[in-house]
């Protein structure tokens, strides 16, 4: 085993989980200002003016509805901080956002085939320009459902509409991960009889395997830049977490475990991966540093989440929180904990699991008793996005 590991791209350094006190390395420390970042942010005041053109009136109404649902704005004519105007002709949409002091924020035309698609793109641009946070109108949710009798992967918008089945594998497909640009999905397929990670191009429809190594592979996650995958591979014998470069097809091991690692997730800085590992006493969460150079050491640390059972971890978009699944009593629950240190909060108990962050960090999606939910962390309100669509599990938000 030692000889095989010497052939890997990276060298491993494991700190024993039995240690009770761990000094966090410099790369794991974050500014203490994260508590301030969690303060509730006020809604910006936005005035939506007239939209000219044959479909201008209906486009304005739909756009106001989209912006209201985002909960980022107070739509008003009084003391507005921003004014939005534009036109809509035959599905083609133009939008102009101006600040109260007269500064032009942007002026753009949207010419996708569908009017709704153009309006969602405009809504997201307005949110980003006015708040600095990404909008969700064009984002997508990917999830697993068994509605056809076998588990397959589906994709939908954040309202639970425009549902499309992505995979049609006889033996099922699970553990989806959307690429950052939304153009591809990595997932685990069982079409060959054992788990193998595939990547599908959603535009062209082709799919390919990630690696030609023997053994199984599963649980892939795209890096923030979309150039790498973190996944579990077992070609060394015991399953380990690997990082593979999609451009060069090289891979490096960043774990060294006798347990069962799963569910890797990237920190937004692209230098850390968090994953669950069950070494016989229930899954715990570990953080690994991803080496920037070949043959560099990969350091691995036990992250104390405060629960004896931790699975499905995912970093928030700003890297200052981790959402994960735990057990409370005999049932699962979704928890959010400050990272690298801080308090934890139960977001939803009674069977909630598989949490995933929205791109703006305000919402979590998760599954509970087969239903897909979106949970507003600012108001603690949630809504069922998709119900009676088979048993839904493993939702992931496009990052």
UniProtKB/TrEMBL annotation:
Name under which the protein is recorded: TolB protein
Domain of life the protein comes from: Bacteria
Key words, A-Z: Signal
Keyword Signal: yes
Keyword Signal assigned: yes
Short name of one Pfam family: PD40
InterPro entries: 6-blade_b-propeller_TolB-like (IPR011042), WD40 (IPR011659)
Family classification: Belongs to the TolB family.
Signal peptide span: 1-21
